TrEMBL record:
SUPFAM superfamilies attached to this UniProt entry: Cysteine proteinases
Domain Cathepsin propeptide inhibitor: 5-61
Pfam families the record matches: Inhibitor_I29 (PF08246), Peptidase_C1 (PF00112)
Keyword Cell membrane: no
Gene3D superfamilies documented for this protein: Cysteine proteinases (3.90.70.10)
Molecular function terms from GO: cysteine-type peptidase activity
Keyword set includes Protease: yes
Record-annotated Peptidase C1A papain C-terminal domain positions: 91-302
Record protein name field: Senescence-specific cysteine protease SAG39
Domain of life: Eukaryota
């Protein structure tokens, strides 16, 4: 196990301040590796791996890398659900906004609990590309710095609807290049916006068909339970609801859905933990069972 640990440290460039910290982290790594090996031996639909989070306890991981905190929505939230009458595509339908050019590269929030900003910006990037034909990587940092609503708490958590509201209040959002990410909350800079939204709507809670209707038309921000060990160490395959709870503590973007060769329906989720988590930064999550609370709290911006 120590050899495995040293290989893992080398792969992820991990160093520790002293021998005591390294010894402590080895014990955490060992416990996680044993859990992962036992889990994978069960032959489930998905596989776990000793990824870059393997020296963190589940509690430490949740504190550093999630950060979804729902609060009441405000002014520009539009009543109703615009995709209410959308005719559902067939059971074997495939939707993948990456193939339509509406999804930017996977980003990495780092040790800042602002998944809410990445989730919201992914949805804005999507609707902006759909309405203008131009895909631009937009600035999470601007949302982090300039959300004056009081509802969002920067790296200590927030809510996508508040992020949409902040973008509206600020007259739009600029590019990531113009206002780059620093993984810490800073002072709001005045930068010319390049994309705007007019409002946002919530998807009816607990209704995966309604969520599918929305995702058929644009990438959607979704709240999820992302703090379980299987979620932390997810590597590939179709994640099922037995691997997570339904507490809303993390946020991602639903950018598509499909059906695998065995007829299992799944969501395609874009996470903000870098490309070296999951399937190049993405997850396939079981659809139709409420897995990880997927349909509890989701919303989307309107162009």
């Amino acid at each position: 196990m120590m050899v495995r640990y040293h290989k893992w440290m080398a792969k992820h460039g991990r160093t520790y301040k002293d021998a005591a910290e390294k010894a402590h982290r080895f014990q955490v790594f060992k416990a996680n590796a044993i859990f992962i090996d036992r889990f994978n031996a069960e032959g489930k639909k998905y596989v776990l791996g000793t990824n870059k989070f393997a020296d963190l306890t589940t509690h430490e991981f949740a504190a550093m890398y999630t950060g979804f905190k729902p609060v009441p929505s405000r002014a520009k939230k539009l009543p109703g659900f615009k995709y209410e009458n959308f005719t559902q595509l067939g059971d074997d339908a495939q939707v993948d906004w990456r193939q339509q050019g509406a999804v930017t590269a996977v980003k990495n929030q780092g040790q800042c609990g602002c998944c809410w900003a990445f989730s919201a910006v992914a949805a804005i990037e999507g609707i902006n590309q759909i309405s203008t034909g131009q895909l631009m990587s937009l600035s999470e940092q601007q949302v982090l710095d300039c959300d004056e609503s009081g509802g969002n708490q920067g790296c200590n958590g927030g809510f996508m609807d508040n992020a949409f509201q902040a973008v509206i209040d600020n007259g739009g959002i600029t590019t990531e290049d113009a206002y780059p990410y620093s993984a810490a909350e800073g002072t709001c800079q005045s930068v010319q916006p390049v994309a705007t939204i007019s409002g946002y709507q919530d998807v009816p809670s607990g209704d995966e068909d309604a969520l599918a209707g929305a995702v058929s038309n644009q990438p959607v921000s979704v709240g999820i339970d992302g703090t379980s060990s299987p979620f932390q160490f997810y590597q590939s395959g179709l994640m099922t609801g037995d691997g997570c709870g339904t507490t809303m503590n993390h946020a991602v973007a639903a950018i598509g859905y499909g059906t695998d060769d065995d007829g299992n329906q799944y969501w395609i989720l874009k996470n903000s933990w870098g490309e070296n988590w999951g399937e190049d930064g993405y997850m396939m999550l079981q659809r139709g069972t409420g897995a990880c609370g997927i349909s509890t709290m989701s919303s989307y911006p309107t162009a």
